[in-house]
Structure formats: structure tokens, C-alpha cells
Amino acid sequence: MTSIIKINNLKKSYENSTITALNNLNLEIEDGDFVSIIGPSGCGKSTLLNMIGALDIPDSGSVTVDGKLVSESKKLNKFRAEKIGFIFQLHNLLPNISVIENIEIPLYGQNIKKEDMRKKSLKLLEEVQLSNKADILPTKLSGGERQRVAICRSLVNNPKIILADEPTGALDSKNSKLVMDLLKKLHKEKNVTLIVVTHDLDIAKEANRTIKMLDGKVIN
Predict the structure, then answer these.
(1) What is the torsion angle, in degrees rounded to the nearest 10, for the CA atoms of residue 204, residue 205, residue 210 and residue 214?
(2) From CA 163, how far away is CA 181, in angstroms rounded?
(3) What is the pLDDT of residues 86-109, one digit of tens each?
(4) Alpha-carbon dihedral angle through residues 173, 44, 217, 168, given to the nearest 10 degrees
(5) How is 168-203 classified by DSSP, letter by letter?
(6) What is d(CA 103, CA 126) in angstroms, rounded to the nearest whole number?
(7) Crossing angle, helix 173-190 and helix 143-155, to 10 degrees?
(8) Contact 157/110 with Cβ under 8 angstroms?
(9) DSSP assignment of 104-160
């Protein structure tokens, strides 16, 4: 298999270099893999995801995604829209627009007709058994349902990589299992590269590979 993500000597610090988030980190992740990332709070897990997803800029080092250096991408929004799907602990759904309109957000600016955007979004809602919730507001959903909508939003642009930062952190055990079963199913069926940051060791064990971090470095 080929590597879809290559990270070389990555450094990132905050607060005028007083806080080191990533310290000469090196990592490769294969195309289509399911990887969990674990480690204590503050070890750099979320910062690493932000670097892969081009949400933050490293101090030095390089991130290559699908054969392209992220630092050389002139249109980061386009890069994210084409390559990356994001899922966060807090679903980040907009409360004043409908469920389906939330899912459609990554498709704006991609020359896709409105009816095609809705068709793609409805198909995903059917896959997560929420097609009957398409036109209601996210505030009417349970926490587990909101996270399933967030998963649909992350998949609507057919990304090659899904970055999930504590996707079950705000859910009870029943909904955590439902969300993880859904992510594993989608990973298998769509062959996306799935990277999950988690504190839950049971969830971490479900991945094909577990990466341990400490003090801004990979330690295994």
C-alpha cells in the first residue's frame, strides 16, 4: 500500500514558543487505513489533526497529503473540500439552518447544482437512518443524532481522509458504539482513510493501528 499522509520533522509551538505541541514529529499513514491516536491531554493529538487538515500552519517540517505538500497548496479551502472530512467532539452544526442544509455546506463553491447537493445529502442521511429528519433544525435532534449528521457532512464531498477528533467524547456508551460502528462501516465500504483521536482505549483498539503520542512525539 502507498502512504497517503507523510509527516517529516514537524514542529509547532504556541504562546511565543513557550508551549511545544509537536516536537520533530515523523509519521506515515497508508491509504485506506484506520488509525487511532492516543495519549494524555496536551500531547499534541489535536494539533496533529489540524496540521493534516490544513487548519493550522507548522513552525517547520512538512506535511504531504495524497502526494502534495500542504504548505505549497495555494487554495487551502479547495484542498480541504476535496481531500478532508472533519468530525469533532462538538458537532459544530449551525443551529438556525436545517439538518440537510448543514450537510450541504462543504459542497458550496464546487459548481454543484442545488438539486444534486440535496440528492447527495439525502442519500447520506438514509445511510445513517435519519432521512426523516432532513428538514428540521439540529436543535431538535439528540446528541447521537447530531453526531451522525456531522458524519454525513464530513462525507458529502467524498473525501479521501476523515479526521475525527474525539467523535464520541460527548456521547453516552450506546451512542458511542453506534457512531463508531457507523464510522467503521463507512471506512470499509468507501475505503476512506480514517484517523480517530480518542481517550477511549476500547475505541482505539478497534483501529487497524494505534499511534501513541507523548510530549509532541510519536512514541511507538
Answers:
(1) 50
(2) 16
(3) 887 776 789 999 999 999 988 887
(4) 10
(5) TTTS-HHHHHHHHHHHHHHHHHH--EEEEE-S-HHH
(6) 13
(7) 20
(8) yes
(9) HGGGTTS---HHHHHHHHHHHHHHTT-GGGTTS-GGGS-HHHHHHHHHHHHHTT--S
Here the cell at position 44 is 499534541
- Residue 63: predicted pLDDT: 93
pLDDT greater than 80 at residue 135: yes
Reported as type and span, the H/E element at residue 81 is helix 76-83
User: Are the C-beta atoms of 125 and 152 separated by less than 8 Å?
Assistant: yes
CA within 13 Å, CB half, 122: 8
CB 195 within 8 Å of CB 211: no
Decide: helix, strand or coil at residue 43.
Answer: coil
Tens-digit pLDDT profile for residues 22-68? 999 999 999 999 999 999 988 999 999 999 998 888 999 999 998 88
As beta bridge partners, residue 88 has 165
- In sequence order, which residues have a C-beta less than 8 Å from that of residue 211 and are 6 or more positions away? 27, 35, 36, 37, 38, 218, 220
Q: Phi, psi at residue 147, to the nearest 5°?
A: -70, -35
